[in-house]
Amino acid sequence: VEKYALTLPPLKEVEVYMATFAAGASTGDMAYAHGDSLEIFVVLNGRVVLELDGTRHTMGPRDSIEYRSSMPHKVTNVGPGPAEVMWITSPPTTVAGQLSHIAAGEK
């Protein structure tokens, strides 16, 4: 998984991340939560399953969903090729090291 920020400090009201998931890749073995902000998840390309508080949502290009970042969530690429997604979170919840599982490329 390659994940990168589109917004960088000093922007303080919103954070935007994009990620590319290889086939079968995910945000990790377990669902995660962070802060209690509004999060919008958008699929740009590919097919993913967003597990949101125990409910699975199969999503494709141009699908989106909003939820509280405090709800446990996990993304898995279920398509045959790469999937590109975007997260928009307001206010920001990410702190240094919080996304280390993604930077390490865990599935």
Could you characterize the architecture of this molecule?
- There is one protein chain.
- With 107 residues, this protein is mostly beta strands.
- Helices cover 4% and strands 44% of the residues.
- A hairpin with a 2-residue loop joins strand 4 (48-52) and strand 5.
- The protein is globular.
- Residues 96-107 have low confidence and may be disordered.
Q: How far apart are the termini?
A: 8 Å
CA radius of gyration is: 13 Å
Largest sheet: 5 strands, antiparallel
The helicity comes to under 10%
Structural class: mainly beta
Low-confidence stretches: 96-107
Number of strands: 8
The rough form would be described as globular
User: How do the strands line up in the largest sheet?
Assistant: 1-2-8-3-6
Number of helices: 1
**What's the pLDDT, averaged over the residues?**
87
Strand content: 35-45%
The helix-strand sequence is EEEEEEEEH
